[in-house]
Amino acid sequence: MHRMSMTLAETPMEGISKEDLLKCVGMESIMTQELRTMVHRRKREHVRAVLTVQSDQDSRDVVNEDEIARVSRRSSKWTRKRAQKLAAGYWTCLKEEVDEQESSPY
């Protein structure tokens, strides 16, 4: 795990083998202690933000789903951007593999 996380941290995306990249699918958030801590903190902050707005609405006897959705979108922005970057990397890797298979005469 440590070797893989160092490889991913120090190597440009083009230099990472498809095999190494695919071994990491689903394990992105546990690659380093720092990332693990950051992901855990952001999850807690997200839950707290949504629960806070819901609690505030409850105390006012109001239900505003748009406000809850807006708070959720805002607090999950970092996670969504991170997921998009990971997906783009995996897509690039997998697309190359599919292209290679399709161009193979066998």
Category by helix and strand content: mainly alpha
| Count of distinct strands | 0
Unreliable sequence segments: none
The profile of the biggest β sheet is:
none
Shape: elongated
**Residue-averaged pLDDT:** 81
Q: How many H/I helical runs? A: 5
User: What is the N-to-C order of secondary-structure elements (H for helix, E for strand)?
Assistant: HHHHH
Distance between the termini: 35 Å
Indicate the radius of gyration in whole angstroms. Answer: 19 Å
Please estimate the helix content: over 70%
Beta fraction of the residues?
A: under 5%
Describe the structure in brief.
The chain has 106 residues and is mostly helical. It has five helices and no strands.
Describe the secondary-structure layout:
Layout: H1 2-10, H2 18-23, H3 33-59, H4 65-75, H5 77-103
Helix pairs in contact: 3-4
Overall description:
By secondary structure, this protein is mostly helical. It has one domain (2-103). The chain is built from five helices and no strands. It has helices at residues 2-10, 18-23, 33-59, 65-75, 77-103. It is elongated. The model has no long low-confidence stretch (mean pLDDT 81).
